[in-house]
Amino acid sequence: MAENSFFEKAFKLKKHGTDVKTEIMAGITTFMTMSYILAVNPQILSEAGMDYGAVFTGTILASVIAMLLMAFYANLPFGLSAGMGLNAFFTYTVVMQMGKSWQFALTAVFLEGILFLLLSFFGVREAIFNSIPVNLKKAVSVGIGLFIAEIGLLNTGIITPGDISLSLGELTNANGFIFFFALIIMVVLTARNVKGALLWGILVSTVLSLILGVTHFPDSHVVSLPPSIKPVFFKLDFSNIFSLEMFSVLFSFLFVDLFDTLGTLTGVATKANMLDEDGNLPEASKALLSDAVGTTFGAILGTSTITTFVESSSGVAEGGRTGLTALSTAACFVIAAFFFPIFSIIPAPATAAALVTVGLFMITTVAEIDFTDISEAFPAFMTILMMPLTYSIAEGISFGMISYAVIKLFTGKGKEVSPVVYGLAIVFIIRYLLPLF
């Protein structure tokens, strides 16, 4: 009784028409649908040279910090962890394509978190969000979806670099078999509305990989203390913080995280009927502050940008309405920390299948893009096209912004473009022209 009284006082359950049991089950459901990140994020960041186990622990700690704030400060039922697309940008663009160190990338994430803290305090994040064209916002999501699906296919060898660009890879080896097996399970379970479809796909295909000898049982116990975060803890590099490259990377992190978080909050809150009569989320500023704090601490702890997960909608669908749902999800993350030996044997084809499936989820917004007006359609198309072709989220955003500003200006629709977009377009053009001087 006293326990229920604590939860009622902390989360105002009756006011939100919910109870302890519903909230806890909603939190577990959210964990089931987003826990794939504990396998995928360490795998992606380890390709940047970071320690797999340390990233695993750092991701859990940063996620828990952000969700505790979401629970007790914002009192909202949203789960947070390392954002998909943002972790891909960290490894495949900043480290692999630009040739920067993972310490440089972590520093950009840290600065992003600090900036977001300031922007959240003064309500600037919402103002920036409103100044960017709707079609470009949706195109970024679609482009990232294609980009991370491409990463998944490349990582498992389904497609490979070819004479022209890309070509079909080996489909009939063990990796190909595990990949398609995992992918089919994920898609079928998703179609059948099974909670945690991606996690089940990862786990079942891991068992298959053990049977085929692709991976092996851990030498240690299944349950163990989490790996140390020492290899990645506070490994920040401030030697290049005033460089143009740092600005470019920092802005890309800011841009993607901004729209990803605000879009997710709006979408999930709409499903939960949590928006007010003006269509706003009453505690949006507190939710944004939660992920800003998570991102700042995440960089210190050794992981990429922390953001609100769209998979939170699964918990909301189960009746989650308060911060107790977020607290329950955080508790599940803490428990998962002690099962690292299981996560460490998950094969790359299984996480690649998860990337492709998440890519599918992200490109569904393409149906909402206005393709009837070419001045809107072409910038959106360039944003979507250039991300997978240049292997860079940042380049897709750059081409989208530049083409939007230029086309609107020269078609007599310049007044439709906000000063923010013009300013960003100029910055991106200067970035491309600088090598000429």
UniProtKB/TrEMBL annotation:
Localization per record: Cell membrane
Keyword presence, Transport: yes
Matches recorded under InterPro entries: Azg-like (IPR045018), Azg-like_bact_archaea (IPR026033), NCS2 (IPR006043)
Membrane topology of this protein: Multi-pass membrane protein
Listed Pfam families: Xan_ur_permease
Regions that span the bilayer: 20-40, 52-73, 104-124, 136-154, 174-191, 198-218, 324-346, 352-371, 383-405, 417-434
Superkingdom, natural source: Bacteria
Single GO MF descriptor: purine nucleobase transmembrane transporter activity
GO CC terms of this entry: plasma membrane
Entry keywords, A to Z: Cell membrane, Membrane, Transmembrane, Transmembrane helix, Transport
Any coiled-coil regions, as ranges: none
Family according to the record: Belongs to the nucleobase:cation symporter-2 (NCS2) (TC 2.A.40) family. Azg-like subfamily.
Protein name per Swiss-Prot or TrEMBL: Putative permease
Organism: Anaerococcus prevotii ACS-065-V-Col13
